[in-house]
Amino acid sequence: MTNNVFLLENLPNEIIIELFKYLKARDLFQAFYNLNSRFNYLIQPLTHLTYSTNKNDNCTLSYPYIYTLIINTKIENKLKCFPNLHRIILDYVTDDLISQLNNHILPNLEYLSISHTVSPFYMPDLRAIIFSNTFPNLKYCYISRMTPPYTSREWTQSLSLRFLKVNDIDSSIYISILLACPNLYFLKFKLPIKSKIQSNIVLHTSLKRLIINMHYDEWPWDDSILEDYLLCVPNLEQFRICRSISIDLNAMDYFQYYDWLSKIISRHLLVLDRFTFDLRVKRPSGLIESISKSTDSILKTFIY
């Protein structure tokens, strides 16, 4: 080990830092921390250091320098042990954990992913934290489950949030998000039902990229519900919509005259640079050959 350390010390800082990226935080600190001042200096500012609660990474020496924390088991009053956290991935959430999510314990939080599978009875509290500027440096957020806020005044604003991904939402949550995140640049969400915007249109001029997943929407499609969604975001530069359909020959006849949202886009998205329409087709086995020929013809017509 001593000889290996000596050989490592002969390398320039850039190469040593690159080599450190291949080591887990526990192994890195156990092997190199406090060997000398140079290694300490190179280790402390590393931004790849990750701690996972189910990996039994109990090297407490690394805690003050952990950049990313992955929580997938119960964690007891421990967030304060990680003062340098910038990224948190929550695969397991409890009320006790939510009580620790505050700016005093996590002043540097920039990335928050909540992908837990536990019943989200505590989610209103979490959403209020996220969308009320509790973390003034938060730039990216993913939320696996959303339900409407209790009142339209429940959220204030999260001014730093720029990238947001959520799963199933409805029109009321969409409007609440636009109001709460005035500087949002990227938004991705699932719209599983025909949920028309009932309230007044909210104008959000900062949003540039939008992805709407409608893989579960009903047939025949009602594109009119999308009009108000797009009316809210006139400065979109990239728009992607994902849809799926269990198709038959009657549906293929419909596609012969479908405009692929061109009229709605031309009315409301005047600066759009890129539009992607992802279509997933589920075809009955007996119709594969005839539908395939018709689909090829339609797609050739649509490409422009």
From TrEMBL:
<dbReference type="InterPro" id="IPR032675">
    <property type="entry name" value="LRR_dom_sf"/>
</dbReference>
<dbReference type="InterPro" id="IPR001810">
    <property type="entry name" value="F-box_dom"/>
</dbReference>
<feature type="domain" description="F-box">
    <location>
        <begin position="5"/>
        <end position="54"/>
    </location>
</feature>
<protein>
    <recommendedName>
        <fullName>F-box domain-containing protein</fullName>
    </recommendedName>
</protein>
